[in-house]
Write a structure and sequence with these properties.
The complex is a heterodimer of chains A (135) and B (123). Chain A is α+β, with helices and mostly antiparallel strands. Chain A has one domain: Phage tail protein-like (STM4215-like). In chain B, strands 1-2 form a two-stranded antiparallel sheet. Chains A and B meet through β2, β3, β6 and β7 of A and α2 of B.
């Protein structure tokens, strides 16, 4: 598995139940918690050339029917992720650090049952991950 | 005599410190302008969201004790309503290809260096 796969799965394991990586499938009931994990690049490389250390960015978009619902879920997600270390065999991961969030905003998606617009709150985290040398 | 020297020093410090708010504000404003330009340039290169570029703006606030800038896309401007889709994706998780971290990562060291230089020059 790639660095992306193992690190993304490890972060997902820490997230609140119901969080999905990538797009939320049709018919999934609200609230929606969509997580994206990106591995922007190698920050340090060993002399032996295999990539060693990455900065991993984690974005979470929480969508619910109301402002207060979205904010409550955002708080739960922050509590679940902030300061936690993803555990991945063969890797040493630093703690997830919040990079901030945004105020809830109204999207262009309508919640049919409530006849109102869906509200989203984005959260952003990052952590450092280093691949341990094989012995 | 020593008393005069001390009084003189205190006076100089007072004069120098009085300049500080305006100069810090200028550094913060310059940082906000750089961020706005960088975000706009990045959005301009997007195939589907280039209309977000002109929506970027910033607002300055502050007083004698602090300076702040709020930088972001203005929903009242053309393209501003698309910015949340560009940076955060759809509520279902698709999209969100805009780089919201890159410009901040690039500007932060520049702005900190400018503040360091300013404060170093005052002391």
């Amino acid at each position: 598995m790639s660095a992306y796969d193992v690190l993304a799965r490890a972060v997902l394991a820490l997230a609140p139940g119901g969080t999905l990586l990538g797009e939320i499938p049709d018919e999934t009931p609200l609230p929606w918690r969509s997580m994206r994990v990106s591995v922007p690049g190698v920050s340090e490389r060993s002399e032996a050339s295999p990539p060693q250390a990455f900065v991993v960015r984690v974005s979470l978009l929480i969508s619910a029917a109301t402002d207060t619902g979205a904010l409550r879920l955002a708080g739960e997600a922050t509590d679940a992720l902030e300061g936690r270390r993803p555990e991945v065999p063969g890797w040493l991961c630093g703690p997830l650090l919040s990079r901030g969030s945004s105020q809830p905003y109204t999207t262009n998606v309508t919640v049919q049952a409530a006849n109102k617009r869906l509200v989203s709150v984005p959260l952003s985290f990052e952590f450092a991950a280093a691949r341990l040398p094989e012995v | 005599m020593a008393d005069d020297t001390l009084r003189g020093f205190a006076h100089s410090l007072n004069v120098e410190a009085g300049r500080l708010p305006a100069e810090v504000r200028a550094v913060v404003k310059k940082g906000a302008q750089n961020l706005k330009d960088d975000y706009a340039r990045e959005a301009q290169g997007s195939t589907h969201f280039s209309s977000v570029a002109p929506a970027w703006s910033y607002d300055m606030s502050g007083n004698a004790f602090f300076s702040a800038a709020e930088v972001g896309p203005d929903k009242g401007r053309a393209g501003g309503a698309l910015a949340n889709l560009y940076y955060f994706g759809s509520p279902r998780g698709g999209g969100g290809t805009g780089d919201i971290d890159g410009p901040l990562d690039r500007e932060q060291p520049r702005m900190m260096r400018a503040l360091d230089d300013l404060l170093g020059g005052m002391l």
